[in-house]
Amino acid sequence: MNVRLWLGMLGALSLPAADNVPAHGLWVWKSSSVLEASHGAEKLRDFCQRESVNEVYVSVSANRDASVDAGLARLIGLLHRSNIRVEALLSSEDADEAGKHREKFLDHVRGIVAFNQRHSDRFDGIHLDIEPQQRPENKGAGNLRFLPGLVETFRDIRAEADKARLTVDADIQNKLLKGSLAERRMLMTSLPRLTLMMYELNSPGDGESLEKKIENVQTSSRKFLAMAYEGLAGPNLAKMSIALRTPDYAEELPRMLLTLDQANRDNPRYGGWARHSYNDTLTGGH
After folding, report:
1. pLDDT single digits (tens) 231-252
2. What residues pair up with 92 in beta bridges, in sequence order?
3. How far apart, in whole angstroms, are the C-alpha atoms of residue 92 and residue 241?
4. Which of 38, 51, 72, 241 could staple 271 via S-S, CB 3.0–4.6 A?
């Protein structure tokens, strides 16, 4: 077989999520602006290689033109050749609500499926940033009135994604881990992967030593993993990754991410870490 053709076929393959390799994820917001910058795709790839990132969550608008899709396809191919998975990052504050809001979001998911059908360099999965807790009626400790609708949305998305052989992961807040056993079972069986946003444990100016920050990450990550799965068993439970963000740790963030792996690598429910966000490393941030 012609070597060039063979390499092209390799680039067209989606990359599966490896169960035995912890995910090291990275959010990329405003992806059009990132890719429009000089050598934007290459700089993102180089950052991933340097920072041990093996999957990227790239924001994708529902309203895009062919040139944007071409840039996304090029990025996917570039990252795949470095063994980096790419998930389409989709956001909403109201997709948990049945009816027009959920259907609009499902159309966005179907748009990712259609993108994959049109391109040889394809998204590997869908990453969900659905935040009903941002609406006023859902604020407050213990207020999980939105959870049943959110889980229904997760399941509808999973049904669409499974048909297209796309993985699905969703960002969650620790508020969701404080629900009842039945609520946690509903959540933890809705998707194969979830990502806990473990934010605001520390800040760069809080005066805490590096050793104390490491201890906080170790203790809190183990606590939240235990909280998520307490009383739950079975093969259909999601794995859970843990996300940290740049504003909490600044240049110490890579050390904290390493701490997550070291503290939880023996826990079979631990899915890896995720870093929010690439945009924070760029001028202007996210």
Report:
1. 999 989 999 999 999 999 999 9
2. 130
3. 21
4. 241
Q: What is the DSSP letter of 283?
A: T
With 0.85 as the threshold, say if the pTM is over it: yes
Cis ω for the linkage preceding 277 (within 30 of 0): yes
10 Å CB burial of residue 26 (0-12, 13-18, 19+) is buried
Closest Cα to residue 107, out of 138, 67, 153, 139?
153
Q: Which fold has domain 18-281?
A: TIM Barrel (3.20.20)
Amino acid sitting at position 111: G
Angle at 273 between CA 91 and CA 121, to 5 degrees: 60
Give the separation between CA 112 and CA 79, rounded to whole angstroms: 18
For residue 79, with 0-12 CB atoms within 10 Å meaning exposed, 13-18 middle and 19 or more buried, which class applies?
buried
With 0-12 CB in 10 A as exposed, 13-18 as middle and 19+ as buried, what is 283? exposed
3-state SS class at 143: coil
